[in-house]
Target: Ribbon-helix-helix protein CopG domain-containing protein
Amino acid sequence: MAMNLRLRDDQQEALKQRAEEEGRSMHAIVLQAIDRYLEQEADRESVQRLGAKYAARHADLLRRLGSK
Model:
């Protein structure tokens, strides 16, 4: 599936400058940014799931610790 990405003029200029500085294409930088975002969100969801799991498992202990 193809998509068009519309950037503001300032974003496009900054991306173009960064690509030139790094000797990479703008496309490669955008793909890397998307990959990083997706990985961070997956990690965040995992942490939230594990936090909820352990909070439920140790709810009594957490209540006791919170009351001190």
Q: What stands out?
A: The chain has three helices and no strands. The longest helix spans residues 26-57.
